[in-house]
Design brief:
Blueprint lengths: L2 H6 L6 H8 L12 E5 L5 H19 L3 E5 L3 H10 L4 E4 L1 H11 L2 E7 L5 E2 L1 E6 L14 E4 L5 H13 L15 E4 L3 H9 L5 E5 L8 H4 L2 E6 L3 E2 L2 E4 L5 H12 L18 E4 L6 H9 L5
Parallel strand pairs: 1-2, 1-3, 7-8, 7-9
Antiparallel strand pairs: 3-12, 4-12, 4-13, 5-11, 6-9, 6-10
Helix pairs in contact: 4-5
């Protein structure tokens, strides 16, 4: 059994609740002559399906080959799709990338740019009216993590509790919190917190932008991680080199003003840069330290 499926087993999840609220995923399209892209459900999957159609049409025209995409259940499913050849390229976080690198030889192609840098932070969010003002204040409370293999939505925010001596290690989190959940994505975790299903949520520093303007005014963050490598676009091994190069060039063309409107269809970064594999070393170290990989 792969690391991804082992991590997934045994975790409590809010997925059933969130599915009822948002709808869910499309079936994968088998990879063929062109490229098949796997997208993780950081946002409302129904919206994401529409975004995929728009960005796939743009990329198909730029690359000169068919491009199709689908929404996976979570990061683990995206990696399994790459492993099985059901997807050629996937958008994902840094932690699942380093696990995919170790397990299936995946390679980083592009890193997202936010506010002029290829980094971002994870945060712990609560409702403004909760009365909770510190991580200690979450003792005995319910928390929604975004995904069990998310660096900003799980591992590094949870490490903030470890650094303060509140949680001994991730496997002992339930000794501090009343209940822990995995919601299936940033938006799902944030909505669970904003609607009162849980007391806190962990997600990207920009995840509050996935809430309505009214909800945004009602949430605050308690703590944030150090800067983390931003989300990355990765490829399975064995893709035709010319096709991969054309994909990278097409994605980098989104940095041009005339194409920038399409960025909102790929999770809304400010742009893309060619990935440097070395920047993921802190993520690899944390993955080894917390037992995600050897």
């Amino acid at each position: 059994m792969s690391t991804f499926n082992m991590i997934r087993r045994g975790f409590l999840t809010l997925a059933a609740t969130i599915i009822l609220s948002f709808g869910f995923v499309a079936a994968p399209v088998l990879a063929g002559e062109g490229l098949t892209l796997a997208f993780i459900p950081q946002e409302n999957p129904d919206k994401l399906l529409g975004d995929i159609k728009k960005i796939s049409a743009f990329l198909s025209e730029k690359i000169g080959a068919p491009v199709k995409g689908f929404v996976t259940f979570d990061h683990a499913a995206a990696v399994e799709a790459l492993r099985n050849g059901d997807a050629d390229i996937s958008f994902m976080g840094a932690l699942p990338f380093v696990l995919a690198e170790a397990e299936i030889g995946a390679v980083p192609l592009l890193s997202e740019i936010y506010r002029g840098a290829p980094t971002y932070k994870g945060r712990v969010f609560v409702r403004r009216d909760s009365g909770i003002t510190s991580l200690e204040g979450l003792r005995g409370k319910d928390i929604a993590f975004a995904d069990p293999i998310s660096e900003s939505g799980y591992l590094f925010p949870l490490d903030l509790f470890v650094q303060q001596g509140l949680v001994k290690d991730p496997s002992k989190a339930d000794s501090f919190f009343r209940r822990t959940f995995f919601a299936g994505g940033y938006q799902q975790a944030m909505q669970a917190m904003a609607s009162g299903l849980v007391d806190a949520a962990t997600a990207s520093q920009y995840a509050d932008l996935l809430l309505t303007p009214e909800q945004q005014s009602e949430v605050i963050w308690l703590a944030e991680t150090a800067p983390l490598p931003s989300h990355v676009v990765i490829a399975r091994s064995g893709i035709d080199a010319d096709l991969q190069a054309r994909f990278v060039a097409a994605m980098l063309s989104l940095n041009q003003p005339e194409n920038a409107a399409y960025l909102k269809y790929v999770y809304g970064p400010d742009g893309y840069a060619v990935s440097d594999p070395e920047v993921f070393e802190p993520i690899r170290e944390a993955a080894r330290r917390y037992g995600f990989m050897k």
